[in-house]
Design a protein that fits this description.
The C terminus is likely disordered. Helix 2 runs antiparallel to helix 3. The chain is built from six helices and no strands. It has a domain of 107 residues. The protein is mainly α. Keywords: Coiled coil. InterPro entries: Snf7_fam.
């Protein structure tokens, strides 16, 4: 059946890079042949330089002429192949650039859709209203803070005479307390019912008499 109807070719189709690689291999093989021909022509040239004119020299020239024609044919073929490889390289670069361009365009389309979805949900009027509400709240907060920081029944200014009177009264009070505590007694502001832990209490007088 396969002989009658054939089979479907499942092998991957060659790409431009595959074709360029094949041409490069052919060019390399032609370079090898050209190197060999140049070596033979150099040998003939050396022999002809030493030979005298005659049938032998003419026959050697004919061989050298044949090799020279072959070399020109191979050089022409090599130039054609290199031109083909160059054109294919340009086509491959153009194809890659087009692919990159299409990828960039697709990415831009996707980004544009996402931006439309995102910014389409934003209501400018609501944002402005929210900003106005925030400003109102800030003003109210400032008013509340100003109200809470207000002082009550505290005079703004104190005159020098009032200051002198207060200082004199304070001095008299301190002198009175000094007179009341005269005689080595501890002042009232230094009296304390309990002594510090590092001060030993005095022994009772009865204990001294017993000793």
């Amino acid at each position: 059946m396969n002989r009658l109807f054939g089979t479907k070719n499942t092998a991957p189709k060659p790409t431009l890079n595959d074709a360029i690689g094949g041409i490069d291999e052919r060019v390399s093989s032609l370079d090898v042949r050209l190197s060999k021909l140049n070596s033979e022509l150099l040998t003939y040239q050396q022999k002809l330089a030493k030979m005298r004119d005659g049938p032998g020299k003419l026959a050697l020239k004919a061989r050298a002429m044949k090799l020279l024609k072959q070399r020109k044919q191979i050089e022409t073929q090599k130039d054609q192949l290199e031109s083909q490889a160059w054109n294919m390289s340009q086509a491959s670069m153009t194809t890659d650039n087009l692919k990159n361009t299409m990828i960039t365009i697709d990415a831009m389309k996707t980004t544009n859709k996402e931006l439309k979805k995102t910014y389409g949900k934003i209501d400018i009027d609501k944002i402005e209203s929210l900003q106005d509400e925030m400003l109102d709240l800030i003003e109210k907060s400032n008013e509340i803070q100003s109200s809470l920081s207000m002082s009550y029944d505290v005079p703004d200014d104190i005159s020098e005479s009032e200051l002198d009177a207060e200082l004199d009264a304070l001095g008299e009070e301190m002198d009175f307390e000094a007179e009341m505590n005269f005689g080595g007694s501890v002042p009232s502001y230094l009296q304390d019912e309990s002594l510090p832990s590092f001060v030993e209490e005095a022994a009772p007088e009865e204990a001294k008499i017993v000793e």
